[in-house]
Every structure is written in structure tokens, then in C-alpha cells.
Amino acid sequence: MPTRPMLSIAAALAIFAFAASSLARAEEVVRIAYIDPLSGSLAATGQLGEQHFRFAIDRVNASSAAGPGRRLELVPFDNEVSPEKSLTLLRKAIDDGIRYVTQGNGSSVAFALSDAIAKNNRRAPGQSVMFLNYAAVDPALTNDKCNWWHFRFDADSDMKMRALADYLVSQSQIKKVYLFNPDYSFGQSVERAAQAMLANRRPDLQVVGVERVPLGKVKDFTPYVQKMQAAGADAVITGNWGADMGLLAKAAQDAGYKGLFYTYYMGSSDVIAGAGTGGEGYAQITEYHANLGGPELEAMAAAFQAKYGNAFYYWRVVNEIDMLAAAIKQANSTDPAKVGQVLSTMVQKTPLGEAAMRPDNHQLLQPMFVSSLEPGTKFTFPENKMGFKTISRIEAETQRQPTTCKFQPPA
């Protein structure tokens, strides 16, 4: 009886290699450059962001949300909140074939990246890059300095200030307000918006101090708190974030400051740790906090806490990655130009309501919440046994403001 010839070891290895290479070609990896501070005084903020992106990407990959055979992958780059270093890292990412970039900490960095990406895409349309902005909120990024390749997933500082100002004005016990912000484009925009939106709202309400400090350079905010106390400020409006906000809250508690803080970035664990056992009544404007309720959000927050040991904070990162994956699937392409065409008009249903991308300036509209730090909430921070309680909900569409943005989609 004739026998079938056996494959040689070399032939078997060749077949195996061919099969493996075919499988590798079948899987399309969409790499996303994450350019944010991962070292230095603001590293904790960047590291928290990285954890959220990894968590969000794991979710969409588990469900093949970007389409069969596609998965997302995060590639972190440490920019130390430096625009100059960020541009160097952007060039490295592009040279490595990365077509998607995300960043959030520092509007000065966002301006530099947005401009460089626009220039790159005009010069080399075959290497076009999309910029996904999750936290840089200077209004100019979606107005005079807008760029079709830039998409913002957080409300801009004017949208946030309108909500904070409306709440502050309703608090009749607050008569003197101090404006205290980081000294760069974002902090300046917060200052301008506060001055404009508090003006002539109540005859007894006055701004008693306006001050800016270098980002990430101050180690002891006590002298500034003493100025707030000397001015008799009942409240402080601040756009400080990360370690700066944590140290500011700590200095206020140590100095016995009795006024309230109205903040953009109070809710992360590192900032709460700075406030210690104090901070009751401090307010924030955000798209998420732990006590919004709902089984889906609570399960997500619990899973994040179990994996990383930190409180879930950046709901907008989940929105960003969910919408990117959905746009890739709908476009059936990973080409940023094709994905951007879909993302420009995307409306996403979320547990908190609809999130809609504005096609005229690429600003996401989503529900926002003013909340204050209070005892007796369902979920609390271990540092002070308090949690955030919703004061008001601002619906997505009511946040739409006029825009000066003028851009054209790529041909």
C-alpha cells in the first residue's frame, strides 16, 4: 500500500510561518499616541489619564467595536507639559506610522499639536493625522484656532464657566470672589470668562482679586491663600488642576480658609487627598461624578477601581474611545480623513444622555453637571468620607455657543 510522503521539518515551518504572517496581516492595529505628562510635578494627572485610556481601549477591543480584525493600542509619550517636547514626540509618532494622537493636559500643548498636525496634513496628505483632545479646553481651539483634524471631547472653558457662574450667582452668601488661575492660555481664558460672566449679575457681588501662577512650579500655596483671606473672599474660582489644585486645597485647609472653591478639576483622587478631611461645599463642573447613579456607570467605575486602585474620573475618555471605534467601524477604514468624516457628525447614545459632535467646529456637546462635595453620598472618597452631589444638570444642546471656526474638510 503506497504511503503518503511526510512533510519535511523545513516545509512544515514554512507553512506555519505563512499562516502566522497571514493572521498578522488580517489584524489591523490602530495605534494612538498619548502625549501627556508622565513624569515631573504633574505626572500623577498624566498617569491617571493613561490608565483611563488603557481601560477604555480594553473595553472596545473586547467587543470588537472598531470592526472585525481591528484593535486599538495606546502608545504613551511623556511630554512633561512642554509644547516644544510635544512637537518632537509628535514627529517621532508620525515617523513611526502613528495616525492618531490624543492629549489633554495643557492648552498650550494642544495649540502646538493642532497647528503642527494641520501643517503635516497639508504637506503630506498620505500621512494625515487626527488629533483627539480629551481635556485641553481653551475656547480658541474650536474657534479662531480651529482645525478640521482636531476633535474635542470635553466642554470648553467658557461652556463650563457659564454653568459655574450661574450657580455661584445663586448663592446669596457669596459676595466677594477671587479669581486664581494657572498662567497660560487656559488659565487666562478661565479668568476672562469669569470676569465677563459675573459682571453686572448682582449689585453686591464683586471680584476682589485676580491672580495667576506658573503651572507646576509652586510648592506652597499658603501665601496666595493668605491673600484670598486678606481680600475677604467668600469664594475662589480656579482652573488649577492636578498637583497644583491638590496643593492649593491643602494650603487652604491648613490656613483655615473658610471660603468655597469653584473648580474645573476638583474631583480626582489626588486633589481630594490635598483637601484632606475638608472641602465640604467645594464645587466642580464636570461631565461625570461617581454619584450620578446607574448600574452601567457604577459597574464601570468599580471595574476601573479594581484594576488600577484609583477612582474612575475621565468619562470623556471612554466617550472619546467609544466614538473613535464606532467611527472606524462605520467608515470601514482606519484612514483619519475617512474616519473624521464620520466622526464630524456622530451622535452617540451614552448612559448619561446623547453626546453629539458639532460638525462646524468639532466640539462635543454632552450633558454636564455642577456638583458639590458633601457628606452622606452613596460613594465617598476615603480621604474625607465625602462625595460629589449633583446641584444642576446642563443639557448638551443648551451648551451650544456661537463659533468663529471656519474650516473645510479635506478633499
The rounded Rg comes to: 23 Å
User: Which whole number gives the mean pLDDT?
Assistant: 93
Q: Give the beta-strand count.
A: 15
The largest beta-sheet arranges its strands as 7-6-8-9-10-14-15
CATH topology of the largest domain: Rossmann fold
Looking at the overall shape, the CATH architecture of the largest domain is 3-Layer(aba) Sandwich
What is the first-to-last residue Cα distance? 68 Å
Instruction: Classify the beta-strand content into a percent band.
Output: 15-25%
Q: What structural category arises from helix and sheet content?
A: alpha/beta
Question: Mind sketching the topology for me?
Answer:
Blueprint: H1 9-26, E1 28-36, H2 43-62, E2 70-78, H3 83-95, E3 100-103, H4 107-123, E4 130-133, E5 150-152, H5 157-169, E6 176-182, H6 185-198, E7 206-213, H7 222-230, E8 235-238, H8 242-255, E9 260-263, H9 269-275, E10 283-286, H10 295-308, H11 315-331, H12 336-343, E11 347-350, E12 353-357, E13 364-365, E14 368-375, E15 386-394
